[in-house]
Design a protein that fits this description.
Elements: H1 2-20, E1 22-33, E2 38-45, E3 48-67, E4 76-81, E5 91-99, E6 102-112
Parallel strand pairs: 3-6
Antiparallel strand pairs: 1-2, 1-5, 2-3, 3-4, 5-6
Amino acid sequence: MRSILVMVLTAALGLWTAFADEAPISGTVKAVDAGAQTLTLEVASKGKTREVIVYMKPGAKVVRFTRATEPGKTGFVEQELPLSAVKVGWIVSATTKHEGNREVAEQVKIVVER
């Protein structure tokens, strides 16, 4: 009985860790390094500001949403951008996963272009 309880608790802890490992990070772009495939973001949390380097996963996308311009289409459409098009001062939201001591992004969404 005790070994079953240990297995259940271990599985629950593993699931919690997997979900806790993934989170969106939102902040102001401070630097873009297209060669290294990184973004440096200034992130505000709990009254404090810190810089976070976000590493782009191979195949990761940078997207923004623009108004549809095609006849008959309304609303917004997703437009993919190269990392090099991202500008300092823009506000972005990066869907990341914590890998080792790095934040690795699968997708970066442009929230505000300044």
